Amino acid sequence: MAVTACIFDLDGVITDTAAYHYLAWKQLGEELGIEFDHAFNETLKGISRMDSLERILILGEKQHLFTEEEKQQLAKKKNEHYVSLLVDMGPKDIYPGIQQLLDELVEQHIHIALASASKNAPMILEALGLTKYFEYIVNPDDLTYGKPNPEIFLRVAQALGVKPSECIGVEDAQAGIEAIKAAGMFAVGVGTVDILQAAGADYVVESTDMLELSKILQKNNTN
Ligand code: B16
Ligand code: MG
Question: Which member of 30, 165, 169, 195 has the greatest number of CB atoms within 10 A?
Fold first, then answer.
């Protein structure tokens, strides 16, 4: 099957914002008396801001202690802290191999789009100097469901006017891989092989410097 589009996740695929999300959630958790570790943080990857907050409150059995408005305020506070941690972000923070992959996709006339759950995604792409590559960026405010629902990936295919079966999705999170597969796309995982394969990834590399377009297309062909 010919590949006409490559759809990227942002956090954990293009750059390492996951570490900053962790710091900001951890601090908010401490203020609320809820402690969590890296393993719990893994379950927040790819999950929207409000859903992440809900998961943290549930962990601390405090989900019923706040009104919807108070939860919005807590999420706002976390986001302000998170954004403040991104001040020095620039092209140096692009993960290895990503710029080359984007250039190869352009050369091969394959559409490039972004399916990130992050409302900060346009600002982050701009800081990285990568906005020009992206033909379409999903606005998470326009979505009803979060990953692992396929809506975000299907929205991209629809916007680009391509068939899901002709799309490749690149993700670091379990929820993201599940979303790509539920959308009927070829899923490339970046991260721990066992975890991402169990989530349904068709091809997994341990780090972004191992992402080679020719290899991905070859794996997609033999799939
Ligand atoms: P924001 P992705 C996701 O981005 C992150 O993985 C997740 O940790 C975060 O909560 C979510 O974006 C929302 O981000 O608070 O910036 O709107 O992995 O889908 O690119
Ligand atoms: Mg991610």
Answer: 169
Quote the pLDDT of residue 42: 85
Q: Which CATH class is domain 18-85?
A: mainly alpha
Check whether domain 5-16+94-222 has CATH 3.40.50.1000, yes or no: yes
Active site residue 103: no
11 lines ligand 1 (CB under 6 A): yes
Please indicate, yes or no, whether the overall pTM of this predicted structure exceeds 0.90.
yes
Beta-carbon contacts of residue 217 (< 8 Å; ≥ 6 apart) = 3
Given 9, 16, 93, 172, which residue is catalytic?
A: 9
Q: Which residue has the tokens 């972000």?
A: 89
If one residue of 14, 25, 26, 48 were mutated to test the ligand 1 pocket, choosing by the most ligand atoms within 8 A of its CB, it would be 48
Are the beta carbons of 10 and 172 closer than 8 angstroms?
A: no
pLDDT tops 80 at residue 223: no
3-class state of residue 111 by DSSP? strand
104-139, pLDDT tens digit by residue?
Answer: 999 999 999 999 999 999 999 999 999 999 999 999
